[in-house]
Amino acid sequence: MAIPLSIQWINGQLIILNQQKLPYETEYIALNTIEDVYDAIITLKVRGAPAIGITAAYGLAIAAQKHDTEALEPFHHYVKKDAVYLGSSRPTAVNLVWALGRLQHSIESAQTVAAAKAQILAEAVRIHKEDEEACRKIGGYALELLEGRTRVLTICNAGSIATAKYGTALAPFHLGKELGREFEVYACETRPVFQGARLTVWELQQAGVDVTLITDSMAAHTIGAKGIEAIIVGADRIAANGDTANKIGTLNLAILAAAYNIPFYVAAPVATFDLQIPNGKNIPIEERATEEITHIAGQPIAPNGTKVFNPAFDVTPAQYITAIITEKGIIYPDYERNILEVFTTVSGKGEKL
Ligand SMILES: CSC[C@@H](O)[C@@H](O)C(=O)COP(=O)(O)O
């Protein structure tokens, strides 16, 4: 039994777990070029907001090593162009542009191209390491909040394989296992791409955590029938007022939690907050290919030419969120005030580091 990892930097090579192939095949692939990284992100070989950010950071660092110039100005120009390219791969998870921005910032003061190349790679490794630490802390805070509750519902995969390790929403279950605390996790299958069925169930089984799969449409019934005591989800972008974008279907669960009077928790690192965005209305929502809905495993399930709407994320208004669990602590309403306070404490400037 072990917590699976999705991203590894081994002897100067980026190796990822190909999440497209799970749960049938556990395939690890090397990403050697910026195009490999872009493709892996857009085709969901690697997915989950923090994992996208970490992979893109390595992608930018890999590309930077290959730029054949001794002059700093063109080097910065190439890095900026690469960052724009990688940043265009998926629009909702803010961790992507956050990580790319952090790498660019890390080389601003470099005196030579050689120094910049070393610094940009070091920063990617740092982001990777920091995310594991952040997720472990999130798990600790989530365990405090879940004290006395064992039956917990989740959606999508906000687990170890969506981050450096442990995950965000799944972190308390992994950490709980390490500490001898058992949970009964209910995983929504998460149509249309089945991150819940394919990834969360697989990941929790690998780690020896008790997990039960339901279809998304069974959530309301299951909360009552199985006595679900809390819902915990991840996030792709959290606006300054606490409105939270996460996998499509999350909003349904938030409304159900309110109807059943059980807590609805969002777990995310501070890298997932976007203070430039005042509220959820301004969060860009990715729309993906129609085939994700009209086909399952390559087989059509709807008439040819069916009109489709396929938003990959929805936005849960802050009023439905009981608490937001970060590595800096647990944030409660009033979110607008308390989120700003966390960031002011973190950076001293009311900005994301
Ligand atoms: C810790 S991952 C948090 C979110 O990124 C996760 O809940 C989610 O919605 C992932 O969506 P995906 O489309 O699989 O990248």
Automatic annotation (TrEMBL):
It catalyses: 5-(methylsulfanyl)-alpha-D-ribose 1-phosphate = 5-(methylsulfanyl)-D-ribulose 1-phosphate. The keyword Amino-acid biosynthesis applies. The active site is at 236 (proton donor). Pathway: Amino-acid biosynthesis; L-methionine biosynthesis via salvage pathway; L-methionine from S-methyl-5-thio-alpha-D-ribose 1-phosphate: step 1/6. Pfam families: IF-2B. Its EC number is 5.3.1.23. The record marks 156 as: Transition state stabilizer. GO terms for molecular function: isomerase activity. InterPro entries: IF-2B-related (IPR000649), IF-M1Pi (IPR005251), IF_2B-like_C (IPR042529), Initiation_fac_2B_a/b/d (IPR011559), M1Pi_N (IPR027363), NagB/RpiA_transferase-like (IPR037171). Keywords: Amino-acid biosynthesis, Isomerase, Methionine biosynthesis. The keyword Iron does not apply. Substrate binds at residues 47-49, 90, 195, 246-247. Belongs to the EIF-2B alpha/beta/delta subunits family. MtnA subfamily. Catalyzes the interconversion of methylthioribose-1-phosphate (MTR-1-P) into methylthioribulose-1-phosphate (MTRu-1-P). This is Methylthioribose-1-phosphate isomerase. It comes from Planococcus salinarum.
